[in-house]
């Protein structure tokens, strides 16, 4: 019987389209430019850019 060690801390979920990790300062949600917020791609599969959420995390700080 094999048991997977799940002792590692879970990082904040982050999708390929995210510019920053969710919860980071000076970030916000923006409509995913790939799926236009639908969360689905052309094949009705979960959008690979936003992970199916329809939003991506973007940096909103005016640096
Ligand atoms: Zn998307």
From TrEMBL:
It comes from Noviherbaspirillum aridicola. This is Molecular chaperone DnaJ. Residues 1-44 are annotated as: Disordered. InterPro entries: HSP_DnaJ_Cys-rich_dom_sf.
């Amino acid at each position: 019987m094999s048991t997977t060690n799940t002792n590692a801390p879970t990082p904040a979920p982050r999708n390929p389209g995210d510019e920053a990790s969710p919860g980071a300062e000076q970030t916000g949600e923006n409509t995913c430019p790939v799926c236009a917020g639908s969360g689905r791609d052309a094949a009705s599969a979960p959008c690979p850019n936003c992970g199916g959420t329809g939003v991506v995390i973007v940096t909103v700080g005016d640096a």
